[in-house]
């Protein structure tokens, strides 16, 4: 009986297999040795590449783009492992290596909603505004952050380490300087970034020419996949038949993505400046260094349309998620690749941003769509609305001038021109030209007397401007159709009250109470 001291004996091998025992024994060791040597052979170049100087070269290029004097450097980040955060750490390390770390404050913008981070920045850089004690237990609101940046910009140089978008750009625009973007305040009378100067174009073109000559060949070589069949030896043969794929240099992949996005941004700037050949070169380089940059590819295709002189079409229907490549949504797409200049994508993206409540930074892209496709009415309507929202009535009227004076060119007639005419009327009201504005509104109401939405919008606009007698005329038109509508009766009572017509106000309010007893 087997026991702990006398275990069950192992079954003996058949006599015919005993000669194979040494083969199996030593063959196992040999196979392990071959696999070990193959793995070392395959991965040693990758290990070496992870410790190359690609990241340092990128950091040096970014440092070269910094202004000579001190400043505040903003960097987006979605987490400590994101590429944007890595970029900031690289720049900080290079500044320290050059002995310039104290000249610049590097700020992680994703941490600015934490009061403790503001306290840290204030301690490190006393000019940074301190969060009031009463608010230090709560998340810092965007308006407070934007106010702090606005205050800092008055006496400090603000720069971004990457092209960005978001609510900061309700107040600022980005001026490119190589891999660094200076934050400038939007002109209040236009909310449009000024055109690029000749010197600025020359500076950036010189920078990118040097980077493409010195850095891109090394990066492209590091990105090229190693083909074992090109140098066939026993180990390569084994790796090839085991379907082992050589991994690209991760540092080169990382830096290529950063360069590609920045080049796409610069290509858009060049294209908007009318330098089509130079823009095509930027888009081509951006796509070559990162073939996954679908935005650069789309912009390059549109650049060919511009250079050919073909008419520009805005087709929002062709914009869909299938065009996003590896990106999940608009934010991920533009964070990874840069901005669009194709008017179809530009229009759809700008409308999404405006609907999210960012009503200033979308003026420039909508204006660009109008420039590229002057007969595309939806872009003009969006642009006029944004101008009115920002109390720039003259710019709104300029945007609507051609649709108002050449309606056939835009397919407008008395039945479908209500939106354009109403916006123009509101612009005149905003300019303190009530007579002209009211005339246009009355004319539109006479053409569409049963349009409840129009009547409501007009009445609200007249109330807002304090034109209560004109609002009362509109209300009476509606009450003639629905005399017991409590909403319009209440409006009549309110307008009468503002005009000191108390008896009429009492009558209207009494009727409202009779209808709506609760």
Protein model, in words:
The chain has 518 residues and is mainly α. Helix content is 58%, strand content 5%. The chain is built from 22 helices and five strands. It has helices at 21-49, 54-65, 83-97, 115-124, 142-153, 198-214, 216-223, 234-241, 250-272, 276-289, 294-308, 330-337, 343-355, 363-372, 377-389, 393-405, 418-430, 434-447, 452-464, 468-481, 486-498, 502-515; strands spanning 71-75, 104-108, 158-160, 172-177, 180-185. Strands 2-1-3-5-4 form a five-stranded mixed sheet, sandwiched between helices. β1 (71-75), α3 (83-97) and β2 (104-108) form a beta-alpha-beta unit. The longest helix has 29 residues, at 21-49. The radius of gyration is 33 Å and the shape is elongated. Mean pLDDT is 87; it is low at 78-82.
Largest sheet: 5 strands, mixed
Q: What is the tally of beta strands?
A: 5
Distance between the termini: 95 Å
Report the order of strands and helices.
Answer: HHEHEHHEEEHHHHHHHHHHHHHHHHH
The 3D shape can be described as elongated
Low-pLDDT segments:
78-82
Task: Please give the share of residues in helix.
Answer: 55-70%
* Tally of individual helices: 22
Main sheet: strand order: 2-1-3-5-4
- Hey, roughly how much beta strand do the residues contain? under 5%
Going by helix content, strand content and strand pairing, the class is mainly alpha
Mean pLDDT: 87
The rounded Rg comes to 33 Å
């Amino acid at each position: 009986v087997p026991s702990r001291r006398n275990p069950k004996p192992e079954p003996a091998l058949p006599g015919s297999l005993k000669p194979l025992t040494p083969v199996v024994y030593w063959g196992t060791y040999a196979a392990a040795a071959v696999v070990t040597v193959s793995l070392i052979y395959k991965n040693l170049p990758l290990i070496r590449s992870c410790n190359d100087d690609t990241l340092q070269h990128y950091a040096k290029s970014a440092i070269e783009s910094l202004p000579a004097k001190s400043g505040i450097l903003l960097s987006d980040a979605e987490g400590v492992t994101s590429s944007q955060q890595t970029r900031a750490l690289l720049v900080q390390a290079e500044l320290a290596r050059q002995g310039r770390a104290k000249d610049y404050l590097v700020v992680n913008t994703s941490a600015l909603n934490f009061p403790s981070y503001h306290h840290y920045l204030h301690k490190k850089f006393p000019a940074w505004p301190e969060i009031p004690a009463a608010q230090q237990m709560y998340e810092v609101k965007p308006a407070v952050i934007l106010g702090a940046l606005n205050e800092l910009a008055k006496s400090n140089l603000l720069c971004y380490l990457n092209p960005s978008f978001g609510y900061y750009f309700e107040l600022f625009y980005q001026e490119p300087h190589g891999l660094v973007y200076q934050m400038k305040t939007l002109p209040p009378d236009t909310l449009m970034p000024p055109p690029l100067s000749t010197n600025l174009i020359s500076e950036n073109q010189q920078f990118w020419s040097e980077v493409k000559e010195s850095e891109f060949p090394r990066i492209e070589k590091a990105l090229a996949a190693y083909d074992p069949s090109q140098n066939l030896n026993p180990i390569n043969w084994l790796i090839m038949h085991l379907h082992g794929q050589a991994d690209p240099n991760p540092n080169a992949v990382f830096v290529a993505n950063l360069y590609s996005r920045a080049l796409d941004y610069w290509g858009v700037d060049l294209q908007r400046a009318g330098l089509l050949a130079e823009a095509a070169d930027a888009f081509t380089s951006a796509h070559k260094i990162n073939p996954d940059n679908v935005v650069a590819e789309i912009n390059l295709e549109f650049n060919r349309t511009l250079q050919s002189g073909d008419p520009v079409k805005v087709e929002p229907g062709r914009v869909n998620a299938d065009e996003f490549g590896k990106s999940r949504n608009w934010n991920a797409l533009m964070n990874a690749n840069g901005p669009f200049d194709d008017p179809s994508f530009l229009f759809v993206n700008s409308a999404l941003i405006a609907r999210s409540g960012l009503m200033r930074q979308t003026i420039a892209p909508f204006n660009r769509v109008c420039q590229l496709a002057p007969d595309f009415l939806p872009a003009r309507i969006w642009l006029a609305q944004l101008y009115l929202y920002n109390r720039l009535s003259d710019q709104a009227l300029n945007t609507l001038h051609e649709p108002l004076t050449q309606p056939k060119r835009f397919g407008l007639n008395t039945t479908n021109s209500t939106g354009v005419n109403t916006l123009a009327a509101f612009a005149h009201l905003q300019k303190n030209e009530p007579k002209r504005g009211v005339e246009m509104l009355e004319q539109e109401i006479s053409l569409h007397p049963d349009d409840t939405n129009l009547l409501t919008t007009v009445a609200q606009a007249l109330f807002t401007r304090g034109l209560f007698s004109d609002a009362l005329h509109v209300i009476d038109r509606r009450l003639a159709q629905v005399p017991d509508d409590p909403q319009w009766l209440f409006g009549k009572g309110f307008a009468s009250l503002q005009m000191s017509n108390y008896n009429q106000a009492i009558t209207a309010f009494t009727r409202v109470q009779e209808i709506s007893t609760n």
